[in-house]
């Protein structure tokens, strides 16, 4: 029982550390410091942090601090979306809607938008309303 508590405490502490570093990456991104955003997000994304994976996807999709690479963007968005991050689900849906790095597929886009909207992500709900 004690070992389980220690494991839970360690997992909680790591999630707080990941959150702080992912937020540092977001702050750098918002300042236009894409190199710092990349430096914060990349190691966390590799370790599986969904917010950082979505952030890297955004950098690659927009070519901010890295060469624009839709394949990389889709790969990172998909990792985060499959973990249930609504923002990444929206980004992936948008890529399918536009055909950015994937074959354009309205039905797949709608599916991702619905997943994000079901979690209360307002931009997904808005785009679904516009598509109807």
UniProtKB/TrEMBL annotation:
InterPro entries linked to this entry: Sel1-like, Sel1_AlgK, TPR-like_helical_dom_sf
Pfam family, one: Sel1
Superkingdom of this protein's organism: Bacteria
PANTHER family named in the record: ERAD-ASSOCIATED E3 UBIQUITIN-PROTEIN LIGASE COMPONENT HRD3 (PTHR11102:SF160), SEL-1-LIKE PROTEIN (PTHR11102)
Organism in which the protein naturally occurs: Rhizobium leucaenae
Protein name: Sel1 repeat family protein
Annotated keywords: Signal
Signal peptide per UniProt: 1-22
């Amino acid at each position: 029982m004690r070992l389980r508590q220690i494991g839970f405490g360690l997992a909680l502490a790591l999630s707080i550390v990941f959150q702080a570093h992912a937020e540092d990456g977001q702050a750098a991104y918002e300042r236009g410091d894409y190199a710092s955003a990349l430096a914060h997000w990349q190691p966390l994304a590799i370790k599986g942090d969904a917010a950082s994976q979505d952030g890297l996807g955004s950098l690659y999709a927009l070519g901010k601090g890295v060469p624009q690479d839709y394949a990389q963007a889709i790969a990172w968005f998909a990792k985060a979306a499959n973990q249930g991050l609504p923002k990444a689900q929206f980004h992936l849906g948008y890529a399918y809607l536009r055909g950015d790095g994937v074959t354009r597929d309205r039905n797949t886009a709608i599916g991702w938008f619905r997943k994000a909207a079901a979690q209360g992500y307002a931009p997904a709900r808005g785009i679904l309303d516009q598509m109807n």
